[in-house]
Amino acid sequence: MPLVAGTRLGPYEIVAPIGEGGMGEVYRARDTKLNRDVAIKVLPDLFANDSDRLARFQREAQVLASLNHPNIAHIHGLEDSDGVHALVMELVEGEDLAQRLCRGAIALDEALPIARQVAEALEAAHEHGIIHRDLKPANIKLRPDGTVKVLDFGLAKALEGSGAPGGLVSQSPTITTPAMMTGVGVILGTAAYMSPEQARGKVIDRRADIWAYGCVLFEMLTGQRTFEGELMSDVLASVLKTDPNWQAMPAGTPAALRRLVGRCLEKDPRRRLQAIGEARVQIDDLLTGAPEPIAGPTVSLSAPLWPWLALAGVSAVVIGAAVAVTGSWLARPAAPRVTRTNLAATGPAALTINGNDRDLAISPDGSRVVYVGNNGTQLFVRSLDALEPVVIATGQIREPFVSPDGQSVGFVEGLNTLKKVAISGGPSIQLTTLDGAPQGATWLPDDTIVFATNNPSTGLQRVSANGGTPAVETRPDHQRDEVDHLWPEILPGGRVLLFTITAQTGGPDNASVAALDLRTQTSTILVRGGLDAHYAESGHLVYVAAGTLRAVPFDLKTLAVRGSAVPVVPRLVTTRSGAGEFGVARDGTLVYVDVTVGSRSARTRTLVWVDRTGKEERIAAPTRSYEAPRISPDGKQLALAITDQEGDIWVWDLVRGGDLRQLTFDPGVDTFPVWTPDSHRIVFSSQSGGALNLWWKAVNETGSAQQLTTSANNQWPTSISSDGKQVVLTELTPTTGRDLMRLTLDGSQRVTPLLQTPFDEQRGAISPDGHWLAYESNRSGQSEIWVRPFPNTSVAEYLISTSGGTRPAWALSGKELFFLGADGALMGAPVEATPTTWNSLAPKKLLEPRYYTGGGNPNRSYDVSPDGQRFLMIKAASADPTAVPPNIIVVQHFDEELKRLVPTK
Q1: Tens of pLDDT along 94-146?
Q2: Alpha-carbon distance 358 to 372, whole Å?
Q3: Following CA atoms 727, 862, 394, 353 in sequence, which dihedral angle do they give, to the nearest 10 degrees?
Q4: Catalytic residues
Q5: Could you give the angle at the alpha carbon of 200 between the alpha carbons of 197 and 202, nearest 5°?
Q6: Number of Cβ atoms within 10 Å of the Cβ of 723
Q7: C-beta of residue 784 within 8 angstroms of C-beta of residue 802
Q8: In this structure, what is the dihedral angle of CA atoms 249, 251, 254, 255, given to the nearest 10 degrees?
Q9: Do 689 and 581 belong together in one domain?
Q10: Among candidates 778, 847, 781, which has minimal Cα distance to 809?
């Protein structure tokens, strides 16, 4: 049923209809939370009422939401309201290409920029493994500012159903002829742009998009459909049997463009253009006026012979010169051959990836790889001319980096202790204490270290490599939407730093790479939509964007980026915050971890019960990327955040086992679950409304989650009072960093400060009797556990840990307070307290530091059984002897590959 103006779908208010197609009705709507206009695509009733099909669509839409490109209309989310299922999308103003073509063919100087941007969009999607399947002029919007936006990426696949008859539904674009309707009212695709393999119902790949691209390009240049017919069957027959009317191409069409259209429209997909990036490159050449290859002369047999005899004499001279030049060229050394090697290791020596920190680095001369292994407790060095790695440090190791001379390795131990060790091994030397979790470091030629933390008030900081007090190098400009400065990397010469600027909204895809002149303290944006950049001596910046490693030409003297970026590693393992598991050496060697090599164990973990003697019992839940486990107060269920694919909350039945059950399905991240005291609901943090805010949802009931807070700042819950009326949460604010706040669940949903200082206070935990608040603060220079009265936190304070502590949790009895020590060991402090008096004994070590600590994750990485005798711990999958460990890939002479893939001239 059509929606009328004023209808509300959650926070969205319908303004007016935009259009209607086989995939649903589209409306302009107003997002009342973020005060922006959006497009709402309402799914057909028959489709929305098919639970299997709807679940499939939700999964596919999550993948499509990962696409973030300036030429792709973005998917904001899914909205379910009163039985209406709708897709929330970016609203793109302007006419579509079909409307423009109604006025006739498009001039070459207008058509080429459009074609280039469409190719950019397809290229970005294909790099993510996403095929459009329904590219046509109606799905290409032309904004008034000249930007082209491609709509409905991958919706053909998202809308398909497992019960569809035959192969045509899953492989074809939208055909709205009534005779061809399926059970949900649509066969997916449009006949005039359907590739021959689609028309035959065969399995398709990205070459089907290339065919459709050729059809669109032909239509722009000629103003005519590439394949036409009176009936749809005639159109399909034309696609399969006839050739385009090449005579319709304008007389002035460049030969290179004619060839490109012809390659796109090869009926045999094996002869068709194989990658849309090749089309983009050819259009770039046409736009920049690059000359076409010069054809050699042709000789007519009827022509007089004497001109060719004269030419022969000249040719002899030319040939002689050519031979001399060729001899000189042959005398030059051949370019080094690019080689790839897997540094495979098993057992404790295997690479450990915790998902929060960068876990490997390479020495500047490219001879040695440094990495974290043995479940994060050992630092290894692997020489490329050696068969086995060597341990050079032990502890809770994070974020290794190598000195310019290659003789020392810097790293962070535990929560925030910066250290260094000789690359040959020996005692580790403490340099300083960080003011937050590490977010990258680089060692400068002047023997200072510039590092970053997740404390948004300090940005980049510098400390002597011999130790001392850090000095603040940069501070984020919060008025310009800068949240933090991360991942510094020094450029050759030691004068300029590369670093990443993160933004309040948009996550890693909205970050920017900048260059900081250390002498003038001026910074310049180099790349938007990228992060974690390194310099390659071939004259390139190599950086991370959307999970890929990209390279762009870069002038070191002028600090200017030239040309377009090109993906050079399509599937790179990245941290939770977007940094890449890679490094580039001065000699041109690249080291990285590809998600296709050992990817399942790269971030996956197992769940175990561990008693006070250290005895483990494996929980039968499957191996996944678990975070933030929380046992329900009745001890029957376990809530978890899983970050490997969906980024959602899942529930495991601790009594009966069975399958993991997914609780949330939002396209954005849902994480940090906390149970209500009755074990009926889970409060969690979700990006559904923009920033991470608090939501809650019933565990054993159907229905949508409800939003509890609306803040522009990221928030995550950490504890709920035993009466269920108050939630303690951490809020990340631009001015004071992490603060402890209180949400009152009385219908008003008021959020008020508990602790708000210039230091970080986080991970608050309310005691079972509701009178005390344990929390973590770094005001002493390192993270420690403190206790204050609750909710009157200003009355008193008590220090619990003395050598570092994080992630507090209470025993249900209230007689013991647990936390993680600086090395990751589980500690326990006996408590003797009344509602008005506090006393605790010295903490004791309960479990050795061999379990996952969560790294920079804001929430707790363990939980306590209701009887206080067992601990639910997360264990890295690399500790599982049956797991395949991730391999480190080394590419020697990678700079030669960059020269080929991304020419600088």
Answers
A1: 889 998 998 899 999 899 999 999 999 999 888 877 888 889 998 999 988 78
A2: 9
A3: -90
A4: 134
A5: 60
A6: 9
A7: yes
A8: 80
A9: no
A10: 847
Encoded tokens for 118: 């469409």
Shared domain for 836 and 873, answered yes or no, is yes
User: Which of 234, 262, 288 lies at the terminal end of a domain, its last residue?
Assistant: 288
Q: Is 607 helix (H, G, I), strand (E, B) or coil?
A: strand
How far out from the chain centre does Cα 22 lie? Answer: 32
Interatomic CA distance for residues 247 and 722, integer angstroms: 79
Distances in Å between the Cα of 21 and the Cα atoms of 72, 155, 173, 557, 742 are: 19, 12, 12, 53, 47
Determine the Cα–Cα distance for residues 33 and 13; give it in Å rounded to an integer.
10
Type of residue at 316? A
- How many angstroms separate the CA atoms of 598 and 375, rounded? 15
Q: Is residue 266's pLDDT more than 50?
A: yes
Print the domain residue range for 455.
352-600+886-901
Domains in the chain, number = 3
Residue whose tokens read 């600090």 = 559
Sign, CA dihedral 865-870-876-878, equals negative
Query: 521-562 pLDDT, tens per residue?
Result: 999 999 998 999 999 999 999 999 877 899 999 999 999 998
Is residue 421 located within the same domain as residue 389? yes
Q: DSSP letter for 72, please.
A: B
Laid out side by side, the sheet with 761-766 consists of 761-766, 772-777, 784-789, 798-799
> Which residues are paired to 19 by β-bridges?
26
Q: Kindly report the three-state secondary structure assignment for every residue of 576-592.
A: CCCCECEEECCCCCEEE
Same domain, 121 and 73: yes
Cα separation, 790 vs 774, in Å, equals: 9
pLDDT in tens, 392-409: 998 889 999 999 999 999
Q: Torsion angle, CA of 803/805/809/815, rounded to 10 degrees?
A: 10
CA angle centred on 274, ends 600 and 283, rounded to 5°: 115
Q: Which helix (H) or strand (E) holds 610?
A: strand 605-611
Q: Which of 325-329, 378-382, 630-634, 723-727 has the lowest mean pLDDT?
A: 325-329
CA distances from 328 to 32, 314, 318, 320, 632 (A): 71, 22, 15, 13, 77
CA distance 638 to 699: 11
Give the CA diameter of the chain: 115
Is 159 in the same domain as 219? yes
Q: Is residue 346 part of a domain?
A: no
Distance CA 355, CA 641 (A): 13
